[in-house]
Amino acid sequence: MSLRRFTVAACRERIAARNAELRAVLRVLPDPDRDPGAAAGPLGGVPYVLKDTWDTAGIVTTGGSYRHRARVPAASSHAHAALRRAGAVLLGKSNLCDLAFSTESDNHLGGPVRNPHDPSRTAGGSTGGGAAAVASGMAAFDWGTDFGGSIRAPAGYCGVVGLRLSHAAWPVGFEHFPRISPFFHDFCGMGPLTTTVDDAAEVLAAVAPELRASGAPTPELAPDDVALYLPDDAHAGRWPSFGRDARALLADVGVRWSPAELPAPEIVNDVFNGFLCAHFPEFIEGEELPIRQGAPAVLASLLTWGRLDKRVHPNTALLLATVALGHLTRYRDAARADEALEHLRKCTARVWAGGRLIVSPTCTELPPKHGRAAFDLTAMTFCKLGNAVDATGVAIPFGRFDGTSLPRSLQVLGPPGSEGAVLDLARRLERAISATRG
After folding, report:
1. How many Å separate Cα 360 from the centre of its chain?
2. Using CA atoms, how far apart are residues 222 and 236, in angstroms rounded to an integer?
3. Of 126, 136, 166, 360, which one is the catalytic site residue?
4. CA 87, CA 206: separation in Å to the nearest integer?
5. Can you spell out the DSSP letters for 115-135?
6. Rounded-to-integer distance, Cα 274 and Cα 326, Å
7. Contact at 8 Å (CB) between 414 and 352?
8. Is 181 a catalytic residue?
9. d(C-alpha 185, C-alpha 176), whole Å
10. What would the pLDDT profile of 339-360 be if each residue is shown by its tens digit?
11. Which are the contacts of 436, defined by CB distance < 8 A and separation ≥ 6?
12. How far apart are alpha carbons 381 and 384 in whole angstroms?
């Protein structure tokens, strides 16, 4: 079914009914933003929300930060401009975490985004507001960003589809607010969160002429052969049967599998964390929060847990302090971190060169309770793999965690530019999952 099954009126009604509870939309526009001349475009009349990391001309854009609560950009980001020209109708800016740097969406502007399946738990971060909005019917889609699983993990937690497009093929660059240091541009992807794989493909087709890099590759991959990336002991979590469940699903759709010849998840987690910590000076090179301003703000936030100083939210302050501490202690050797990341990228490239996509869990743990995400050290590992190698990655719902109402999710990872192949496999898996559930 087309995205036009969603109407502006119905989505605005859902926002009015549920947003006070879920806090998914940070800024609800009093009048939807549309381009009257684009009504006949491929997304003409389709209602959406936009993560508040994308500048919107004349509309407050905060990056989730209290410091920017009155910031009104003069020009729109390429993402907003492309969606507007395609005819999509903006209903509001979706909620996120301060600086878009936390694994749960909470800030001093709108408070924590609540998971639609269990409001006592987070919707994830940093695109948690978009995931919660789509899952609860407030929008047909959100267009998010993904630095360390920021699209795919919230999609997994909320039971929707989340697609990270590779930076090499769909560059984000300086369009992201807060600005990301060029050193880390290839860690940050963007893409839609939708209710189905077909919906994601429809959004991509509408904006690809403007947002996909000209000349970006379209790799050929075997449609019936994948590499299965299984959890190690540290990552089995609440889904110890993932291997069995995934093999049965792949058999249902006639796809062969073999073990992914990649470093263990525990090593992947360490490689991502080590690279980020070792290059902390480069990470804070952006114009957003220089060290002389950032260090006192982070310290004040942690000492008062955000009660007396709102310059940085404590969830974000805790992660920034952890990365800085890692840089000063365990991960001081940048050359060693570079070597470890290059080895991981070569291993992944060999899998893709053999024509195989990678299938893994998205997350194997339940969404954390509010305020606890920073203490779950393994939750984002499988997502981090995608960012470390600039993968095209999609998360799709795959049942529920035993004894809960909370959705599980699996992930498909492909090389830069492989969104067609990734979505094709995801669509086959989605249909098989739906048939089994029905």
Report:
1. 16
2. 28
3. 126
4. 9
5. ETTEEEEE--SSSHHHHHHHH
6. 8
7. yes
8. no
9. 10
10. 999 999 999 999 999 999 999 9
11. 252
12. 5
Q: CA 56, 195, 403, 247: dihedral to nearest 10 degrees?
A: -120
Q: Please tell me the distance from the alpha carbon of residue 401 to that of residue 408, in angstroms, as a whole number.
A: 6
Residue among 51, 93, 310, 384 flagged as catalytic: 51
Question: Omega before 126 cis (within 30°)?
Answer: yes
Q: Which residue has the tokens 């209710």?
A: 195
Cross-strand pairs, 207: none
35 SS3 class: coil
Task: Give the Cα separation of 102 and 109 in Å (integer).
Answer: 15
Predicted TM-score (pTM) of the model is 0.98
User: pLDDT tens, 278-324?
Assistant: 999 999 986 677 787 889 999 999 999 999 999 999 999 999 999 99
Q: For residue 306, with 0-12 CB atoms within 10 Å meaning exposed, 13-18 middle and 19 or more buried, which class applies?
A: buried
CB 80 within 8 A of CB 55: yes
Task: Determine whether 405 is an active site residue.
Answer: no
DSSP β-ladder status, 47-51 and 25-33:
unpaired
Cis peptide before 178 (omega within 30 of 0): yes
- What is the C-alpha separation between 255 and 244, in angstroms, rounded? 14
| Coil, helix or strand at residue 165 | strand
Q: Are 410 and 360 in contact (CB under 8 A)?
A: yes
Rounded Cα–Cα distance for residues 365 and 146 (Å): 19
Q: Which residue of the set 102, 105, 150, 360 is catalytic?
A: 150
